[in-house]
Prior knowledge:
Structural class: alpha+beta
Strand content: 15-25%
Distance between the termini: 32 Å
Radius of gyration: 19 Å
Shape: globular
Amino acid sequence: MTESPTAPRADLSRxxxxxxxxxxxxxxxxxxxxxxxxxxxxxxxPVLLAGAPAMLKLxxxxxxxWGGALMRWWNGDGAARVLAYDGHVLxxxxxxxxxxxxxxxxxxxxxxxxxILCEVARQLHTRTAPPPDGLQPLASYFESLASAAQAHGxxxxxxxxxxxxxxxxxxxxxxxxxxxxxxxxxxxGPRRGWLAIDPKRVIGDRGYDHATMFGDPLQLGRxxxxxxxxxxxxxxxxxxxxxxxxxxWIAAQQGLSAAWHLEDDEAEEAQLPLSVLAAALALGADERxx
Length: 290
């Protein structure tokens, strides 16, 4: 998800973001265009490169570092373009458009937002160059759900029973974004359009990326099943995925998301993906008809 500035971290081994980024600002002749800030996984700063807006990012987290390799591989097709890099430090073009998919979802334009997400996914999934080394198979992601199913049963077990045959189906794997939702596709203005940021390092069935579009910003409440069913049809139409198969991927991915929250001792945060999972089951996610 899009990361926001946080309060000062307790990790005193990490330098302050201004000091951490200064060597690369100097090396690449960048001018600060805002304050440097920390997130749980990175240090970032808006900068100018020859007068053009860019974002300087130093990734501390290994997952974020691998995401930079994918950004370079996509070469600006569907994802923000990498302007310079040095190991775990990236300089990428900066989103300057004024719209957001979250705003669209809340003001009656969610169908349009979902179609934008699907178009970005199409661009990311159709690149034909050999993928970068080091991508994790999607099945390894789901080890957390398998563990939660064994430990807790219930919805986790039902999600795992849906996920396991999907992972074994042998669909042609493609490099995935891994976290493709309303906050990770940004408006880069009329020339560049909508582009993805913050990918993970995973390869697998493209249905997984489309399933990640359903956890946010669907919100809890009695209207959740209706909203889920409507978004399901919009995304199925735009992606070309069979609605029944997409629904199974939604159930599997939302179960995985809840399992990750459990691993992080975030039981309350697990309630949203569990609610989406329950809504997907109510729509027949565990009924195979294709």
